[in-house]
Amino acid sequence: SQQGEEDPQALSIQEGENATMNCSYKTSINNLQWYRQNSGRGLVHLILIRSNEREKHSGRLRVTLDTSKKSSSLLITASRAADTASYFCATDTGRNTPLVFGKGTRLSVIA
Amino acid sequence: GAGVSQTPSNKVTEKGKYVELRCDPISGHTALYWYRQSLGQGPEFLIYFQGTGAADDSGLPNDRFFAVRPEGSVSTLKIQRTERGDSAVYLCASSLAGSNSPLHFGNGTRLTVT
Question: Which among A40, A95, A102 is the nearest to B100, CB-wise?
Fold first, then answer.
């Protein structure tokens, strides 16, 4: 079963624009992580945000977490064609619980 | 350093056959995960190891699927009596401290059951 659900399912933007992807989940979480996957490749970790954190930054990435709404967002600023990929959120409910992924958002950045 | 390695990268097998998929995690990573991913979907959790033991195998779809990690390093996912519905990309990941730390994924094994 999948805990997280990303929105939108697909997003197409022009290079230089910002891209925002949202993730909603159902049960209380311990951590929430965002991953990126290029076609035909494995997933690459982007950011981990803990349940007691509200915002995190990494380069052009900004992640927010609202535990009261059970939602998170990933913002990619000044997007590049190389950002074209699928983006997944994943949550766990405790230290020895598995990481459960959503269905992902397919981002296309057009040069 | 070396990342997570999965072999083979592609496997084609006939319905009813037995297959083994191998995962070499990053050295020192105690946690190891198996996921299955179908086209256009997110990774579906199968099983999670801490050291040699399966901490959670609730994602294994049925008793045709089994995984081992006998020495706490390399893991093998075994599928008996394969069915066409087993066709997917099987992903392996490892991490230092379970879900409290980032997972490092291999590039997966694409399994096709004909």
Answer: A95
CA angle B34, B40, B45 (to 5 degrees): 20
On the question of a cis peptide bond just before residue B43, with omega within 30 degrees of 0, the verdict is no
Q: Cα(A111)–Cα(A95) distance, rounded to whole angstroms?
A: 41
How far is B80 from chain A, CA to nearest CA, in Å? 22
Q: Which CA distances in Å does A60 have to A46, A80, B19?
A: 11, 10, 42
Cβ atoms of B37 and B44 closer than 8 Å: yes
Name the β-bridge partners of A89: A34
The contact set of A with B (CB < 8 A) is 2, 4, 30-31, 33, 35, 40-45, 48, 88, 92, 94-104
Closest CB to B50 among A48, A96, A101: A96
pLDDT tens digits, residue range A22-57?
999 999 999 999 999 998 888 999 999 999 999 999
- Where does the pLDDT of residue B1 fall: very low under 50, low under 70, confident under 90, or very high at 90 and above? low
> pLDDT digit string (tens) for B63-72?
999 999 999 9
